[in-house]
Structure formats: structure tokens, C-alpha cells
């Protein structure tokens, strides 16, 4: 391989130590825990694929969301999803989907989105309640570490100038323009706000709403779950946040891809993030 | 040779990522079928039970509701008409000959008619029933306090669990009668009752006539219906599958507070 090719293939720059080892470990534990929680959660949901608002499921008001199947021609199931009274045919994905053998069967979420893949509530609960502990303990370690190591104050808390530049940051994101050089060492303001919202709003809320479904935890302070509308509302919020987290994940991965997939992946594995500085740019172009 | 190693490393990661994702699903499936992994996952249940025990008083009361919250129709869960000739005969004569046997580790084994159960100290409560599947219904229950019944039969000091033997067979061939068990803390809890009324009417067959357990703060499957016999034991290892209940024998948690 020619020397000149080496230069063009490997952009020069400095490897900046971006993510500390504890953050990297906790990040990947979180990926595993949240994936298992989502998929086992969908298996649990499948046991009663209806969401209600209120203290109980049967208070006379219609469900917010209902996934089911009706018998179509020749007994082939047709997947039906009802959202706020609007009805959609969702065969193939929701309500009726192909099982492992390729046969269309009634089932809220398809097998490939659930753990375990067959409908098995007892086992799904075991997965869910075990990984809930993994997730919560990992999250507590992360928050404690971030506070003590000043990761939170230094890297995540938006500065005054960050907040002033929100407008510019939105424009930059829409144009897929990503900071380079020194600026690439820091999280941008939208990134900071997104991470903070997930870490301090969505994740605590999804945990709290999970706890609200526990009849025993409800008795610690009888009525506390009414602050969120009651147990069935809590279940609905729990489900909605799970999908907001999926949306966050999709945006997160999209941003990682468009702003340098391998660079970001490396930095979350070895900690090193390559910064192409102005100097190195000029030296080689 | 940097680029070669770099791209080889990247290829390695790309392939690994794909392999990890693909094997995750298949792996989870295999793990669920093993003996040891579900046991490891069961650590979550143990931890929940322990933490719940530490966090709050065993006497904490479940939330109670107002009549406005009552579900228009309290749906049936589990069995709604036991396929058991002896039970069907009892239904036919209005449970006139029904007797609840209480035995096992007690000083004074006894049998209670429905009239005698109604004479015991009672409690009326509007509570929420939470099924393990995810739904909830709110009903008004009236029944004999289990504590009052236990006081009458005087549990021995080595009694640790109260086992409820039920009339509903869980297998199509009429075998595997439903059963459940709770510990003495739950048994003496103020809201633990043997309900004989639902929404001010005699408990209907679909909801567990003539009596069903209400053990608020736990999921629906703990609330045994069609109770025929109560047994106090020091261990439920020798009963049916040995896990303390029909659904427990089928993989569900004995501690159903979550």
C-alpha cells in the first residue's frame, strides 16, 4: 500500500480522550438493559394489549389504544389498531403478524420484537423485573459518578452561551452541519438538552410509572399514583415513554451516523475521539 | 500498515455488532429454556420482595376508592365457572351445605358454614384488583377478616403460611385444583378478608362464590376464588408443584406485589 494512500485514508488529527471508562461501561450496560426492558415489556403488553386512562381499565371510558385481531376471509386474522377511537388495519405488524413458520397469527406485537419470542408472560416478567434492577442500579451509579466526577457539570450542563445559541444549533442540526475542531470536543446545546431530558425526566419517569404498577408500592403512600391519573394512566405513560426512548435512540443513532459513525463508536469503546483541528486541515489540504 | 489494521478492526466491529444483535434474540430464546437462567432472573423477584419488606411497613394499607370509581361490571378472571360436579351441586342448592374447613398447624381445627363466616368480624373495602396481565378493576368487597378466623382456630407457632385450596380444576380433565398461599403477615393484614359480597350483592359464581380471598397489595392470581379448605403449614414444598400456588408452579412469582 502506498504511503500517500495511508495519508488520505487516515485523516490526521488528534485523538481526544472523550469518554471515561466508567461512562463507557455504563453506556453499554444501559444499551443491553433498555433493549431487554423494551422487548420483554412488549411481551408483557401483549398479555393485555389495551391502554386506558384512569384508575382502572373498566370505568366506562373507551381505551386510549387497543391492538387486536378480527377474523378475516377464510379465518385469516386481520390486525386492528385503535388509537383514540381511530381504527387502522395493521396486519403484518400489529394485531396480526407472521409467526416463525410464516403463518399469520393474532398477536399484538410480533415475535421478533418481544422477549421471549413466544407469548410467555411469566418468563417476560422475569426478564423485565431482573433487567429493571440492572437498569436502575446502573443508572444510579451513572448519576453518582457523573456528579462526583463533574461529568454532569462540565460536559452536560448547558452554559449561558450554549443557551443563547439554541437557535443557531437548531439550524446547524437541520443542515446536518456538525462542529469540528475544538467545538467537537464538547456536546452541542441540543445534545446536552436531549441527554438531560432523557437522564433526568424520561428515565426517572419510566421507572416511577413502572413502580406505580406495583400494588405493593402503591400502598407505601396510598393514592400517590393518582397524581399521574391512576394505575392505568401510569401503565399508559410507561408505554408512551418507552416509545419516546425508542425515538431518542433513533435520533441518537442517526446523529452518530451522520457525524462520523466509526469515530463515535470508537470513542464509546476505547474512549478516543478523533478531532480534526484547523491546523491539521491546513497541513494536509 | 495503519489503514489495513484500521479497516480490519472496523470490519471486525461491524460483523460483531451484527452478530451480537442477531444472537441476542436467539440467545434470549435459548436462555429462557434453560434451567439456570430463569433462576438467575428470579433474583429480581427475591430482591423486590426484600426491598419491599425493608422499604415499608407490612401493615401499610392498600388504597381505597370511592363508590364513583367502581367498575360497572367486575370482570371475571381465571376460572368463571368451575368444571367440578361437587361444586356445581353446591351452586344448585345455594351453598346451603358449604363448609369451609380450616386445618393443618392449628390448635382447634374447625369447619365454618357461610352463616358462621358472616358472624366473624367483617370489613368492607373498595379496592383495585390488578391482574398480572395488566388490567385493573375496582370493586366493593365485604368479607370476614382472615385474622378473626385465625383467632378462632389458633395457629400453632410453627405455622408460616396459609394455603387456600379451591374448587376450580385448572386442567380440562378435572385435575390440578387451583391453590394459593400467603404468609402470616399478609394473613393478619387488616384488609385481608374472605369476601362473600361483591358490590353489595352475594358474591357471584364468576367472581369466586361462595368465598374468595382478598389480599390487597398483591396481584390478582393471589386472590384465590372458590375456597373450600384452608390449611396452615410451615412449608408448601410438598403441596402440588411445591411453589405455593397454581400459577407459581407455572413460573409466576410467589411474591406478587409487583
What does this protein structure show overall?
The complex is a heterodimer of chains A (285) and B (258). Chain A has 285 residues and is α+β, with helices and mostly antiparallel strands. Chain A folds into 2 domains: 3-20 and 149-284, no CATH class; 50-108, no CATH class. Chain A has 11 helices and 8 strands. Chain A has helices at 3-9, 21-46, 121-148, 151-156, 160-164, 166-174, 189-212, 215-218, 231-258, 261-269, 278-284; strands at residues 14-17, 50-51, 65-71, 77-83, 86-89, 95-98, 104-107, 272-275. A 4-stranded antiparallel β-sheet of chain A has the order 2-3-4-5. In chain A, β3 and β4 (77-83) form a beta hairpin. In chain A, α2 packs antiparallel against α3 (121-148) and α7 runs antiparallel to α9. The longest helix of chain A has 28 residues, at 121-148. Chain A is globular. Chain B has 258 residues and is α+β, with helices and mostly antiparallel strands. Chain B has one domain (63-249): Sulfite Oxidase, Chain A, domain 2. In chain B, 31% of the residues lie in helices and 24% in strands. Chain B has a 5-stranded mixed β-sheet with strand order 2-1-10-5-6. In chain B, strands 3, 4, 7, 8 and 9 form a 5-stranded antiparallel β-sheet that branches. In chain B, a hairpin with a 5-residue loop joins β3 and β4. The radius of gyration of chain B is 23 Å and the shape is elongated. Chains A and B meet through α1, α2, α3, α8 and α9 of A and α1, α2, α3 and β4 of B.
Amino acid at each position: 500500500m502506498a504511503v500517500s494512500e495511508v495519508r488520505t485514508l487516515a485523516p490526521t488529527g488528534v485523538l481526544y480522550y472523550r469518554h471515561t471508562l466508567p461512562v463507557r461501561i455504563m453506556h453499554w450496560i444501559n444499551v443491553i438493559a433498555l433493549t431487554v426492558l423494551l422487548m420483554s415489556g412488549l411481551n408483557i403488553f401483549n398479555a393485555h394489549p389495551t391502554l386506558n386512562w384512569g384508575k382502572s381499565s373498566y370505568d366506562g371510558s373507551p381505551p386510549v389504544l387497543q391492538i387486536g385481531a378480527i377474523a378475516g376471509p377464510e379465518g385469516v386474522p386481520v390486525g386492528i389498531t385503535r388509537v383514540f377511537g381511530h381504527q387502522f388495519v395493521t396486519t403484518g405488524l400489529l394485531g396480526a403478524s407472521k409467526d416463525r413458520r410464516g403463518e399469520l397469527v393474532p398477536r399484538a406485537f410480533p415475535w421478533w420484537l418481544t422477549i421471549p419470542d413466544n407469548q410467555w408472560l411469566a418468563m417476560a416478567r422475569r426478564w423485565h423485573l431482573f433487567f429493571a434492577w440492572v437498569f436502575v442500579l446502573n443508572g444510579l451509579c451513572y448519576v453518582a459518578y457523573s456528579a462526583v466526577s463533574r461529568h454532569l457539570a462540565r460536559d452536560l450542563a448547558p452554559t449561558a452561551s450554549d443557551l443563547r445559541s439554541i437557535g443557531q444549533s437548531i439550524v446547524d442540526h437541520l443542515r446536518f452541519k456538525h462542529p469540528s475542531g475544538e467545538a467537537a470536543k464538547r456536546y452541542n446545546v441540543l445534545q446536552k438538552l436531549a441527554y438531560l431530558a432523557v437522564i433526568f425526566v424520561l428515565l426517572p419517569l419510566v421507572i416511577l410509572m413502572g413502580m406505580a404498577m406495583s400494588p405493593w408500592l402503591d400502598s407505601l403512600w396510598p393514592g400517590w399514583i393518582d397524581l399521574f391519573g391512576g394505575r392505568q394512566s401510569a401503565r399508559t405513560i410507561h408505554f408512551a415513554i418507552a416509545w419516546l426512548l425508542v425515538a431518542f435512540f433513533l435520533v441518537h443513532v442517526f446523529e452518530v451516523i451522520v457525524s462520523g459513525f466509526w469515530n463515535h463508536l470508537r470513542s464509546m469503546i476505547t474512549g478516543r475521539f478523533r478531532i480534526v483541528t484547523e491546523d491539521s486541515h491546513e497541513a494536509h489540504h | 500498515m495503519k489503514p489495513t489494521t484500521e479497516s480490519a478492526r472496523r470490519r471486525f466491529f461491524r460483523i460483531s455488532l451484527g452478530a451480537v444483535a442477531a444472537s441476542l434474540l436467539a440467545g434470549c430464546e435459548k436462555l429462557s429454556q434453560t434451567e439456570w437462567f430463569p433462576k438467575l432472573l428470579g433474583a429480581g423477584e427475591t430482591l423486590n420482595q426484600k426491598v419491599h419488606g425493608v422499604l415499608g411497613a407490612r401493615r401499610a394499607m392498600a388504597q381505597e376508592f370511592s363508590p364513583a370509581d367502581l367498575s360497572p361490571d367486575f370482570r371475571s378472571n381465571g376460572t368463571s365457572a368451575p368444571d367440578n360436579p361437587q361444586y356445581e351441586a353446591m351452586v344448585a342448592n345455594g351453598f346451603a351445605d358449604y363448609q369451609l374447613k380450616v386445618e393443618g398447624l392449628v390448635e382447634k381445627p374447625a369447619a365454618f358454614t357461610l352463616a358462621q363466616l358472616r358472624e366473624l368480624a367483617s370489613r368492607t373495602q373498595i379496592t383495585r384488583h390488578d391482574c398480572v396481565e395488566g388490567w385493573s378493576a375496582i370493586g366493593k368487597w365485604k368479607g370476614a377478616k382472615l385474622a378473626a378466623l385465625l383467632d378462632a382456630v389458633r395457629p400453632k407457632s410453627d405455622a408460616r403460611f396459609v394455603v387456600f385450596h379451591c374448587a376450580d380444576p385448572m386442567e380440562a380433565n378435572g385435575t390440578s385444583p387451583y391453590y394459593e398461599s400467603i404468609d402470616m403477615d399478609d394473613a393478619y393484614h387488616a384488609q385481608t378478608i374472605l369476601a362473600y359480597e361483591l358490590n353489595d350483592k352475594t358474591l357471584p359464581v364468576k367472581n369466586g362464590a361462595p368465598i374468595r380471598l382478598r389480599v390487597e397489595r398483591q396481584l390478582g392470581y393471589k386472590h384465590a376464588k372458590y375456597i373450600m379448605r384452608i390449611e396452615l403449614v410451615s412449608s408448601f414444598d410438598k403441596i402440588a408443584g411445591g411453589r405455593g400456588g397454581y400459577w407459581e408452579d407455572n413460573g409466576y412469582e410467589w411474591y406478587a406485589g409487583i
